């Protein structure tokens, strides 16, 4: 190889490596915003939430004198208590970039163990709504229910982290 050929080959190799590095960086950048969005959504979603309203078949369901609390962890784990007794636990997966944001709630213990509820969610610092149908093959696209559609709309209010109000 002559000096010119060697210089050209070295330049070509450097260019290929640079393009490969840029492509790798772009693919990593494409993943990072999604991961960051999920982390932000998980942080907002985490906490202690009290059910304040339930609707199904297009009608509000009468509230019982029971306190239903769902505690969500930032890693997706959750537990549900009724009047202080644990009745369910599970895992959730969210896609905050979907329109509307999507959630899959898997029940790993308690009533409904093994079921996966497909739904949509919206969350603020003080209020959260979930609309889901369950395992019947479709995910709601809006926050409402209609007679016979099998969808359930649940509204939550954020609660203090413990009984002392802290």
Principal-axis shape: globular
What's the helical proportion of residues? 25-40%
Rounded radius of gyration (Å): 24 Å
Overall pLDDT confidence: 81
Descriptive report:
The protein is of the alpha+beta class and 166 residues long. It has a domain of 114 residues: Lipocalin, CATH 2.40.128. Helix content is 26%, strand content 40%. The protein has an 8-stranded antiparallel beta barrel with strand order 1-3-4-5-6-7-8-9. The radius of gyration is 24 Å and the shape is globular. The protein starts with a helix and ends in a 7-residue tail after the last strand. About 16% of the residues have low confidence.
Blueprint of the fold:
Layout lengths: L2 H43 L1 E10 L2 E2 L7 E5 L4 E6 L2 E11 L6 E9 L5 E8 L3 E8 L17 E8 L7
Antiparallel strand pairs: 1-2, 1-3, 1-9, 3-4, 4-5, 5-6, 6-7, 7-8, 8-9
């Amino acid at each position: 190889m002559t000096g010119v050929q060697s210089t050209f080959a070295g330049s070509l190799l450097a260019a290929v490596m640079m393009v490969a590095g840029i492509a790798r960086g772009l693919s990593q950048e494409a993943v990072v915003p999604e991961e960051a969005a999920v982390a932000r959504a998980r942080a907002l979603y985490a906490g202690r939430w009290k059910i304040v309203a339930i609707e199904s078949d297009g009608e509000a369901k009468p509230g019982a004198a029971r306190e239903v609390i769902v505690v969500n962890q930032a890693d997706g784990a959750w537990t549900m208590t009724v009047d202080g007794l644990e009745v369910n636990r599970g895992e959730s997966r969210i896609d905050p970039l979907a329109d509307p944001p999507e959630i899959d709630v898997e029940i790993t213990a308690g009533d409904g163990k093994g079921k996966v509820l497909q739904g949509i969610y919206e969350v603020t610092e003080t209020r959260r709504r979930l609309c889901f149908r369950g395992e019947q093959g479709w995910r709601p696209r809006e926050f409402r229910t209609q007679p016979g559609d099998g969808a359930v709309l649940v509204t939550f209010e954020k609660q203090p982290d413990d009984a002392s109000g802290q």
